[in-house]
Structures are given as structure tokens and as C-alpha cells.
Amino acid sequence: MSATEQSIGIARTAAHAAVDKIAQDIVAIDVSDRLAITDVFVIASAPSERQVNAIVDGIEEELSKQGLKPVRREGRSEGRWVLLDYAEVVVHVQHEEDRVFYALDRLWKDCPSVDLQLEGTLQSSPQTAASDDVAE
Question: What CATH code is carried by the domain that includes residue 80?
Fold first, then answer.
């Protein structure tokens, strides 16, 4: 079983909202085969706590336009790793240091990625750029 079109749509909306707030290295992972509680993880990062919170605000604002509110929110006061649980989609916005330390991308590497359709956006991706340098 793979993520539903509705879940993928929510993930794409969250990702585009994150791009608008200058999030970095945005990915979505289809975890529906591994977890019964959600379909997609969206992971994004930022260089500061203030930026993490701005990204979270942007995502919540955009998804609220679709009538969606998180059923749970964690980590907002610290601004290091904020989790927004929309039931079928869980959004993780992490400080870039925490993103490297906790390595959610690696933890779920066996799961398929979701195409967020971010082509043509100004998505910043320093981790991807660093890995491109190594590959050359």
C-alpha cells in the first residue's frame, strides 16, 4: 500500500509553504508500508530556531486554508525540532544541526520518496550540494 493522493497533496502543500519560508533540503518519505498511523513524513530544515518557527507558521497557515489543523504539535517553544501531526502527514521542521544529528532521512531510507513537485522553486539544499561535491 502506498500513500493516498490526499496525503501526497497535503505533503506538497506543506512543502511549497516551507519553500516560501526559505526552508532547506525539503523531502517527503512515503512511510505508509511501515507505519499504520501516517502515510507521509515531510522533513525540512532551517539554520536557526527563528527560521524553524517561521516555516512552521507558514505551513500551518497554508494548510489551514484547506481546513486542516494539526491534531498534535510538539517542540514549538524550543524551535529546534517542531513536529506537526496532520494524521496522514507528519511534518518535521528541524534546526539543521538536529537534522544531521537525528538523521531521519537515513532512518527511513528504505521507504520511497514522494515527488513534491518543487521543480522551479528556489529550494535551498546545502546537504544535497555537499553530496554532489563528493560524487564528482
Answer: 3.30.460.10
Q: What is the pLDDT of residues 83-122, one digit of tens each?
A: 999 999 999 999 999 999 999 999 999 999 999 998 866 5
- The secondary structure of residue 124, as a DSSP letter, is B
Maximum pairwise Cα distance, the chain? 45
Measure the CA–CA gap between 50 and 62, rounded to whole angstroms. Answer: 19
CB 13 within 8 A of CB 66: yes
The span from the CA of 11 to the CA of 86, in Å, is 10
Residue owning grid cell 525540532:
81
Q: Which domain holds residue 93?
A: 5-135
Domain count, the chain: 1
